[in-house]
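G.,

No rush on this.
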Amino acid sequence: MKPIKTPEQHAEALSCLDSLFSRGESLTQEQRDELEILATLIEKYERDTYPVASPTPLEAIKFRMEQMGYKQKDLAGLVGGASRASEIMTGKRGLTTEMIRRLRDEWGIPADSLLGGATPDPDPSAPTPGADGAYDPDNYPLKQMYGRGYFPKYSNDWKGHRKDPAGLLRDLYPHGSGVRRELAHCRQGGGENAKANRHALDAWQHRVLVRAAEKKNLPAYDRAALDGNFLRWLAGLSVLTDGPRLACEALAEKGIAMVIEPHLEQTYLDGAALLGSDDRPVIGLTLRHNRLDNFWFTLFHEIGHVLFHLSPENPVILDVDIDRRKTDVVETEADRFALDTLIPPGAWDEQVRHLHLAAEIRAAAKRLCVHPAVIAGRLRREANDYRMHRTLVGYNEVKTVFGITEEN
């Protein structure tokens, strides 16, 4: 393998890198070594040829936009709207910590360049404590949270307890609770994410971590146990009526804390991968879309995050509106992992992608040992037409498996 010296060699190396990444856990040791060498060569070429560091944060952003062909609307998706993007581009607004994090993670701009020697501006939309350490109750769907049991010390008297909303939030976020709290961070850009209530996302995240911490008897997490054989077996559980429940139990047996926690209003949240207080991987699922195809795709998407993206440096990955197409590298990798694990690429190309009839889809599902909803959901996703195969995707067949009804 030779050093990269030309744009053509750089493009070829990136193509090889993408091809290797797409194989996930199936890589041989020789291919893993090749991937590592390729990444090093690409990084060196880009560092020498396209230096990102700039005298000011604005120049760093403009340089990256010009280099990658990004427009101001792309920046708007990262910084919280068109008006903020316009103010940043004209120098009227500085960058908040959350903006710096997103520009670093999703556009690859070094944090040093984005800081520019200045303290980041506070993010006006972020959940922030007041002077007394409390959170502003007006920003949270407290009644819904109360009904869901978010406040253990309070129950069965909403009319009385709603008179002390600050007290409810103090109960939710007690000092010294031992639960790691990171600012809720949605990786998906645009769409519902732009309207998501980040305070509600923060509360949901906290609730999931609290519930995960209560699971005391889980074995130690062993990443190696989530190998290709186990993942193929896990996908095969989709053919069983109680497959979703069995899959969650199987992951718990591998040391992953599994939590089913319905989404809160204005969050549009489908799932999350988190690190618990003991650095144990946590997968939270909302079952917002009560469909089998959505359950299996979301579950494997979050497993992809656990395997490849979750770390102490990146301990929170919230997935909003998961059916929406993404451009972020991390989310694209998790999508590809889920799609290729549920339906291997060879099988998809040779047996599945051109199917139209329900009988054909059911027959292919039987051959591949997956539920027809897995194939139907993939076909809908690839066609970007969610009116297709409505009888095959398993509407209203997930929550009942977990004993969830409208009443509870």
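When you get to it, here's the other one too:
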Amino acid sequence: MKTISHVFAFVWLLAITLSAHAHHSAVVFDFDKSISVTGTVTRLLWRSPHVAINLELVNEAGETEIWKLESYAINSLVGRGWKKTDVKKGEVITAQVNPLKSGKPGGVLQWVTLADGRVLPIHKDSPNGNKEVKVDVSTQSTIYVSTESAEDLAVRRKAALEREKKWRPATLPLINNVGGPGALDPEALIKKRSAAPFDMTGVWEFRVEDERSAKPGVNPWDFYPIPKLMPKAQATLDEYRAVIAQGKRGMDPHARCYPPGQPALMTRFGAFMAIQLPTAVYIVHRFNNSFRTIFLDGRGHVNEDIRQETYNGDAIGRWDGDSLKVDLVGFGSPEHWIMDGIQVSEQFRMTEHIEMLNEGNTLMIEMIFVDPENWVGEWKHTKFYDRLLNMDIEEATCIAELDNSALPGL
């Protein structure tokens, strides 16, 4: 009979060990408790932003139940020596986990012991958790080669060109008659401009403030101290805190795959890539591949009569000495939270003051938030991001029906 054994022991584990790769808050887990769960693997969800393992076991009451166990994203596990083929459906494994506060079957993984005795570490407290792992990520060499003959290829290509000519627009290039010019228009890109003081192109990792992470109930991606909230906003925050005190995720829109939106997007753990051109900075984050643009071509904000409300805002940047100043408006999308428990309204706007430090290896972003519907005055904060090499941003989608079905507490 497969069993679950409870080991009540204090585990030195800050919420950061999960949050560093989580797309939502880790408030549902009890990090002061560690338990050992042994069961049969029924599912391995090998995808970002979370890898998840589901185990079937018989509990102490003799009932069959499914334990849903949450872990880091793929890159983080591979960096610790994991391979997709290590955890096989139908095999019996033992997982050390921090369980759900609710007492329901589920938790966040600390490490996994396979049927052959091998330990797959996750955080530094795992057996061999600090052991350096050499990972072979060499590319497979198999590339598809068509067996089509040269004659058949020529016939097919000729037919395709005939179709192209038949349906070719009367005038090229195509022109959008609303707005413009576009930041990627060839004429815009070759226009003479003063050289930018720095280039953000690269991959950047959010810097964790460990001393803030150690405070109970304080997530290092949030923006403490909080200003004086308006009554409605304070009531929402109080309700959120009451919900998480029960170990629930019910009010967390990120757990339900809503976009984080600005400024939460820029403070999610994990990396984002920036591609800087003379006319714009394009940013894609590993968190659900959320996308934002900072326009640098001298345009103004989109007229509010035609502007759509978005999660990342209409961002207009301008160079000011050695820094980039960005003004963002156009918010008010559903379930848009500035941080856990605090929403933004259509009156929300923010500015970013971006500087480059440490010989081009650190970004410092000073942020100012204004939302008279939700808080009093200006709310200011500064975050840091460090250049990350040997890293690419890959596809990472959050699909509630797929991901949440394998995750605990959802």
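DSSP finds seven helices and 18 strands in the chain. The helical segments are 16-19, 74-78, 150-166, 186-190, 210-213, 231-245, 400-403.

Enjoy the weekend,
O.
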